[in-house]
Write a structure and sequence with these properties.
Strand order of the largest sheet: 1-3-2
CATH topology: Multidrug-efflux Transporter Regulator, Chain: A, Domain 2
Number of strands: 3
Number of helices: 4
Structural class: mainly alpha
CATH architecture: Orthogonal Bundle
Number of domains: 1
């Protein structure tokens, strides 16, 4: 992915009112990917909704980084379990029809 396809972290943070240090802390905890090019930080456009969600947890709900990390991992696990359950329902439906 080229820098033309990426969003400047500085621009995003100033537009959204999010501290750059907060986004870097999320990155350090493995909650999102940041690309650094010539000492400038960038994020992929598809990551923006995720950053916005995590920022709302922090700024609006006053959840600290440890809480955000725990919630994120639980949400990922729930999504994975839901996906597995959908796949099992589909397989069961195929067996019931066949």
């Amino acid at each position: 992915m080229t820098t033309e396809e990426l969003i400047s972290l500085e621009l995003f943070c100033s537009h959204q009112g999010v501290e750059i240090a907060f986004v870097h802390a999320l990155h350090e905890r493995g909650l999102l990917q940041i690309t650094v090019v010539q000492d400038r930080s960038f994020v992929a456009p598809e990551v923006l909704p995720h950053i916005e969600k995590l920022a709302r947890m922090h700024y609006e709900m006053d959840i600290n980084l440890e809480g955000i990390e725990a919630i994120s991992h639980l949400l990922e696990r729930v999504e994975r379990l839901q996906s597995d359950m959908r796949a099992m329902h589909e397989r069961l439906r195929l067996y019931e029809e066949g």
